[in-house]
């Protein structure tokens, strides 16, 4: 560790300040450091899970001494009289002593919002390549994480092939629609998706808690005229609304909409969530927008309802703006995946001539992110 790293004990041991190798001076509380220790008495070596609870850490924990030794920050805690080593790079990566203020609607660094100009940046990969090569799979999943959607080409043209796509990174999430569902014209359909009508850009199943966080749509036949797929970045739409109308953005984040589906016997699904959902610290985490499944909005005070509806209308207009959409037509053996908490998908109407047969299924983002993290944590092979 470079010699310029220095340590100062603060508030009679309640915290310490460390100047890390990147030059930043970061403060850490004693209880936080003790809770995040990686010694074998605190964490299981095999899986990294904590062996102790917070109640096992004395409430009066303080830092008695701290020094640099063998390239690590050695911290001695009282009243346990235990010395624990911390890697400086780990402390830098997990520092929480940051001065920056984030405005509501901020997004994580690995996310990039987009509009119709996305073009060649669409994450596209060959199904056989990502199935054989973990590095290729990681590259594709990284793109899906960044943009919220991606395409695969070169897949088999056979029923239930989409289940193999889900198996690349996780598991199918079964719902009342089954492990997978058919998207083609039906007589007396249980859902408007099973007609030839065009569909406004929407997120799926907003009436569930939690919603399925990923959706896969896989093409088996597509000779009908029309029926192109469209995707819209809901996060970019939210950013546009915030820039145009901070008040409208605030209304759609502070008040819950309601969604409902009761299109089948024995099924009545309901949820109550904002159309634009923020984490407590203002991070933009989810969009729920689906006019077909919207129920009566009853959680907005009378004095704000007119302004809420104006914001709702404007949000829909932004989503419908062709400058926001990426459009493509799937060929048999092709599919696309969307982050259903972020990217809205739509379909243009199609004629009765020819055929259009897609299959869809749901999965969850935690499996995709877990697979990607595992790939990224693997050592790279020398070229």
UniProtKB/TrEMBL annotation:
It holds the Pfam family TauD. GO terms for molecular function: gamma-butyrobetaine dioxygenase activity. Keywords: Dioxygenase, Iron, Metal-binding, Oxidoreductase. Its cofactor is L-ascorbate; Fe(2+). Its EC number is 1.14.11.1. It comes from the Bacteria. Residues 118-362 form the TauD/TfdA-like domain. Belongs to the gamma-BBH/TMLD family. PANTHER family: GAMMA-BUTYROBETAINE HYDROXYLASE-RELATED (PTHR10696), OXIDOREDUCTASE AIM17-RELATED (PTHR10696:SF25). This is Gamma-butyrobetaine dioxygenase.
